[in-house]
Amino acid sequence: MTDPNPTGPIHNGTIPRVAQRMLTSGRLARRFALVSLALGVLIAILIGASLYLVSSRHLVRQHHANVEANASLAARQTEGLLSTLVTTVRELTENSVLATALVDSAGKETYLIPFLGSFNHIASVPVALVFTDFEGEPIADNGRHVAPLAIGPADMAWLRAAIAAGKPAARVVQEGETQFLLAAEMLIYSRTASPEGALLYKVPLDSLVLHPEAELLHGSGPPPPVRPDMMAVTVPLTVPERLAKLGLKLRLEAPDTPTTAHLSWMLPAYGLVAILSLLAIYIGSRAVGNHMTRSLRELERLAGAIATDGFTGQRARVRGNDEVSALARGFNAMLDHIAAIQREREMRAAEEITIQRTLAERAEQARAEAESARNEEERSRQEAVMALMVAERANAAKTHFLAAASHDLRQPVQSLVLLTSALAIRLGDHPAASLVGSIEASMDALCRLLDAILDISKLDAGTVSPNIQAVSLGTIFARLEGEYRLRAAEKGVAFRSVPTNVTLNADPALLERIIRNLVENALRYTDHGRILLGCRHRPGALRIQVYDTGIGIPPEHLERIFHEFYQISNPTRDRGKGLGLGLAIVDRLARLLGYRVHVASRPNKGSCFTLDIPTSALPAATAASGAPNAEQAPEPGRGTALVIDDDPLVREGLTLLIEDFGWRVTAADSAADALRLLRDQPRPPDLVIADYRLEAGATGLEALRAVEAALRERGFPAPACVVLTGDTAPERIADAEASGYRILHKPIAAKEVAQLLSDSLTDQPTGRPETGDRRNSTILQD
């Protein structure tokens, strides 16, 4: 029976309107989602059970594979430790010098026992070592006397049996709860080539195994049983031949199945995945249902919008070819008719708007282009300024870095050069003198690098002043041809210079250095063919050229070959191919003399380096004489010297070397120390050598001035004074040169020290020479 009251419980708001819309809207989408959710629950149960079984079995197989991999890795590590241990011990026994020292017992307490004490561990493994004579009596050990690693009487008894057999032996011994590897190597006496003793070493077996769950087994007994619910992986070890009879194996024990913790996470994880999957299925199904009914909802919203706001060109979206799509196409036909009426009316207004917009856009474009041009010009100017500042900072940083690196290297190199020279003098004809020669050769290579850096720093500091005089270019060519012809012939390269009688005004040493560096560069990179040195006249310049048939230079490298340390075909930094500073020095010297250097090259064909000298240097009145013959190292005579240097190694090396020349030397580490020592001496020194940098910020210049003042107060003449420096900073070089003292740059060799001692006695300089008289302005070759 129908309720006649329109305000009954259903119609009087008992069910809110919002709830009614939720129950009535999207009913098809909800039904589709619920059906999909039911199917998803069934599928999730089936798939989850299958995945759980498969994952459990996979975890077990993966666990077994991991245990085997860990066992193999631990075995390889143990093999490496055993190999290192046996190799180190064998090298000790095969050292003939060590065997001889042990037998002769000369100096054993002085150097042998401290040497053996350094072998407390081999490859981080604790080891006890004992050297014995041929009867098994201990001679020396490495100091391992603490139990349980100490070697006992039973171990020595076994060693004597091994010595009687006369060959290496090894065994595993049990001491309490610990097993040890006990092995012996025979000592061979160098003069008889027969066993004269033995080396016994003892190592805990557990220290050879790095894995905490692994143990080392040997073939002397049955292995311990494997615990229940455990698996064991045994890996035979590949060991040196001396240990092969022990049958060493590494065994790793692990649980037979993954721990419960590995499996307990699977069910919650699969449950979580199932819940998330069902949630995704429901949301996806609801989205699919909404997608299927969206065309109807869009038509509903479009009709409502047109009814409310009027037609503004809306269109219904047509999807597919079903009934809903046919309805949408009919709706659009109606909208097209409405649009045709409005289109004609709006066309004229649109044309006018278009014209106005075009004019506005052109005006805005013109303004933007003008503003962009101004911004581009300002940005270009700022970039140029920034590039110049970056280049200047980079150049200054490079100069300071080279100076600091050169100074820090010259201190230890100087001590090595001086101590090596003193050692060579004291060894004389001793068999070890050949080793000193090898050390001196290495020192020479390092000194050439440091001197080349010094040359760069001198040129950057502006302390090199050209000495212009008449120079015979033909004399330089002839001298270089005589010097390099044989060196070139050894490489299978023909070297020839074209004779010339050209004479010009130049600095002979700097000009020859430029040409010599170019010839050196050609010789390094030419393995066949020829090298030609010559000159020719060109309008406005004299052109000196070095032509070679070497490897050539790719075009992209032509601008950078004059940079410091830049080499194209020397990736291994072979010292035989130079240091990469020769062409950098050529470029700086050329600019110093007002010349221009350039290069033309073709890869695999050869190169031609050209030096253009302005014709203002031609002609000259007379030609300079040839280069003087090389002087022999002088005999320094006898005298006294005062050395002031805060570096103990340099001070000791310089003292030993000067004393080897027959001089008496007083060494001090500061100016105050030097003044104190001078007060106790009855006569003044003939020579004072001071390092430029002393401790606490003091300088050698201050020390020399203090010594001169102290000697003058006592009525003594000023001695010869020399400043020794390893600093190559341009400002430091300029400061030292301006002092007027004689400047020598580290490292100095024994020949230079001998020359310095000889000059101090023959020249008898008094006090400080005139500025520039003895400046060391020579540019050394790269």
Describe the structure.
The chain is of the alpha+beta class and 782 residues long. Among the domains are: 285 residues, PAS domain (Beta-Lactamase), CATH 3.30.450; 153 residues, Histidine kinase-like ATPase, C-terminal domain (Heat Shock Protein 90, 2-Layer Sandwich). It is built from 17 helices and 22 strands. Helix 8 packs across helix 9 and helix 14 runs parallel beside helix 15. The protein is flat, with a radius of gyration of 47 Å. Its EC number is 2.7.13.3. It is an enzyme of class 2 (transferase).
Number of strands: 22
Main pleated sheet:
5 strands, antiparallel
Helix content: 40-55%
Alpha carbon gyration radius: 47 Å
Assigned CATH superfamily of one domain: PAS domain
Instruction: Quickly count the helices.
Output: 17
CATH topology of one domain: Beta-Lactamase
Shape: flat
Strand arrangement in the largest pleated sheet: 4-3-7-6-5
CATH architecture of one domain: 2-Layer Sandwich
Structural class: alpha+beta
- Average pLDDT, rounded to a whole number, is 76
Distance between the termini: 120 Å
Poorly predicted runs of 5 or more residues: 1-15, 18-25, 620-634, 765-782
β-strand amount:
15-25%
Identify the CATH class of one domain: Alpha Beta
